[in-house]
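Researcher: Batch entry, complex prediction.
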Amino acid sequence: MDVLKKVPVREQDPKVRATNFEEVCLGYNEEEAKEEASRCIQCKNPKCVAGCPVSINIPGFIKEVENGNHEEAAKIIAQSSALPAVCGRVCPQESQCEGKCIRGIKGEPISIGKLERFVADWSREHGFVPEAPEKTNGKKVAVIGSGPSGLTCAGDLAKLGYEVTIFEALHEPGGVLTYGIPEFRLPKEGVVQPEIDNVRKLGVKIETNVIVGKSVTIDELLDEEGFQAVFIGSGAGLPMFMGIPGENANGVFSANEYLTRSNLMKAFRSDYDTPIVAGKKVAVVGGGNVAMDAARTALRLGAEVHVVYRRSEAELPARVEEVHHAKEEGIIFNLLTNPVEILTDEKGWVNGMKCVRMELGEPDASGRRRPVEVEGSEFVIDVDTVIMSLGTSPNPLISNTTKGLDINKRKCIIAEESTGKTSKEGVYAGGDAVTGAATVILAMEAGRAGARGIHEYLSANE
Amino acid sequence: MYRITRKKALNPTVTLMEIEAPMLAKKAEPGQFIILRTDENGERIPLTIADFDRIKGTITIIYQVVGATTEKLNHMEEGDSLQDFVGPLGRATNTEGKKKVAVVGGGVGCAIAYPVVKKFFEQGTEVHAIIGFRNKELVILEEEFRANSSKLILMSDDGSCGEKGLVTDALKKLIESGEEYDEVITIGPLIMMKFVCKLTKEYGIKTVASMNPIMVDGTGMCGGCRLTVGGTTKFACVDGPEFDGHEIDFDEAMARSVMYKPFERKAHEEVCNLYKM
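Model: Structure tokens for the complex:
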């Protein structure tokens, strides 16, 4: 064993997995997990913990894995995280815990995400369930949205004895875990549903098909339905488009639509009714995780897929592992390329995309080098389907229908970071609804902060 | 689950259903819609709210069998339950401050025009309803329209009922005869709405069209229902479904409406075959 290198994780062969929706990464077995855990040097002042948004006691759980005490390891993680099977799979570890690991200076960091995933999968397979409180305190809290922030907030409040009801607009709970991230990264029945069931086992009620702002308002929940506090975890689900000519042509989709059809509606399966236009030659515009998910979905539906991104590879915002997997599967990257027009045939269908070449100029306010158009570099990519993955913004439905709830210029709800407190009494918020599109783990951290804020608020009122 | 409390065939292809959904019935307004899913493997389809009863806690939907989901729906009976039923969605029709309006409905679109006509009539607006059908067999809600409008003109393509001709012929005649409307509201097939809007533009009468594009979530998160209105992209599910008819790019909307035609035909055939067995 080379202590400088991670114990490799078993994965489906790229040629095989490019044709199915099964999970790509197979995870560690007990032996591999133990070996990887033994690489951890158990720092006295662990930098990895500081790199984790919810500060999981990483050396603590890794020590238990090394000793084969998986249930103990699960309990340690459960103190900080409600969705370990999810986060072990989808966190950008290279910029969080693993990015801070001392082992990473000379060699490869400890595979913390894969070890967390191993513990979570082990506990699910061995029936380890979180303990529900013996009795409730009789106080009712409403949580809007059943994505990572809402689930975490609800789980934490239930553990403190609150009677929590989650209201979800779609017909399935999970938010982006259900409609956004595909099966091949995050299995729905195998991983997402059991983690949601764990939250239910804590006594949390989940009501689907309720659109807060339409079916019921926050003011009604507080004034008429007997809820004493509300947490808004409604996310940032509104897709952005480029505003270029031809964008409303047939065959142009938002990544949200494409992924919702495939993931939530299971359009990739023939026994479900929702159709999806697979496309023969697909361009995905954008470079984030959502772009990688959409590209790899289109590939699995049988298309040749191009990722079109205006900056260079170094600036791709997607997780390194996702980009690596996409390349292995045969996704073609057209970097430093920006679409300017979508071309259509006489029936209004996409038959090409006019692009320009870009070069990187001076760094902008965010520190990234700004892409600049190369004059006279127009060319056409021959595609029949375009998926726009340019980011999302919060849905204004809730802020428009709630009196006294302040939002900023980007339509994000203004809330205190440490407590989730908003401008309206009794209303707390967190996750993408506050920050704009970010990560699952940051949304969980915000859900945890919101639960803390609500608990302080409702305890002070006693 | 959402129970079907009443089912009634209005004509050979159009059916009315009352669904138990108290939370929705409390909030529903004319012009809004719902999204339903018949069963676990089903797709989400939007249907406009045709009526609601706040006391009974029911929502009325009226649908025409055109594809797999409406076929499945049509095989459900009173007492059966729908898997999902969510709403009310979209913006309600703005009826405020209008003294005299014309509502132009076509085919199954008349089911959506009816609650709008009713609301205008109940608030004391003078409302002229023009409803058009291909033939006598397909007429729906004639009595309801008659009881809730100041004037009703029934048109049919073949003259088998009412007057022979198109709804635009009737509207033109009314305008030419000197009727002055604050607004025209049109609900029906895209091609009909396009020509109603073209006509009223000539006379400079403000016109609102109720659009019915393909939808998935109905809450603004996918943009599948987007339209070009006045040169900018709008999402029908949250910004609409009603828009200024003189600003809508109808040709683009018509092209987008047939995007899934091949899938729909195949799926409908498969479902039909399923019920034959």
